[in-house]
Amino acid sequence: MKSEQLIYSNSDGWVSRKRELGFSESSATLVFMFGTVELLGDESHYNFVRSKYPNAKIVSASTSGEISDQVHDEQNILVTAIQLEKTPIEVQSLNHSEVQDSYELGAKLAKKLSDHDLKHILVVSDGQVVNGSELVKGIRSETSNSVSITGGMASDNAQFIKTLVSVDEIPSEGNVVLIGFYGENIKITYGAKGGWDEFG
Asked: What is residue 199's predicted lDDT score, i.e. its pLDDT?
């Protein structure tokens, strides 16, 4: 696996943050595009990323901040392009308007993924109209327990008005995206932390 990261800000435009040796833009398999609702809503940014990585699946989501290495940014777009040499992927999406029950939405999406040699599912979901707990239950109902599931929900910086998610198009509201990773060459690790810290 090889990767490249770009960051966009209104002050500096598009800037390369890092690029691994051997990475090829035309060979990029998967691109994550995270940023504010306002910036992702600008069609020119998606068009730039599409032209840069013509053969990749582009998954976009609005956030409350973007993390690169150990740096937390806000009011930017962070793009991470990944070149997977040995791991096939499959990307499926549905809009909440098509299946309004979150459990059924998750189950229907999971059914769309091929289950042969499936190792991991990464979920990127609208954060305003979808019930995340029920969505994951629905996905799990249609997948083997040996398949790990991770992911997250889009945000709008705590405005609670609208969130944006998409695959291969201008980000819009109500979308849920599943990315399936296949084969023996990918190893997935993950961690989670919850609860409250003392303050004052």
From this structure: 73
| Residue from 74, 82, 77, 75 nearest 60 by CA | 77
- In our burial notation (b when 16+ CB lie closer than 10 A, e otherwise), range 141-169 reads ebbeeebebebebbbbbeeeebbbbbbee
Give the three-class secondary structure for 91: strand
Residue-wise pLDDT for 81-117, tens only, equals 999 999 999 999 999 999 999 999 999 999 999 999 9
76 in Cβ contact with 39 (< 8 Å): yes
Q: Distance (Å, rounded) from C-alpha 37 to C-alpha 40?
A: 5
pTM: 0.91
Q: Are 107 and 139 in contact (CB under 8 A)?
A: yes
User: Which helix (H) or strand (E) element contains residue 44?
Assistant: helix 43-52
Structure confidence by residue, pLDDT tens digits, 6-52: 999 999 999 998 899 999 999 999 999 999 999 999 999 999 999 99
State whether residue 21 is helix, strand or coil.
Answer: coil
Q: The dihedral of CA 94, 194, 31, 2: what is its sign?
A: negative
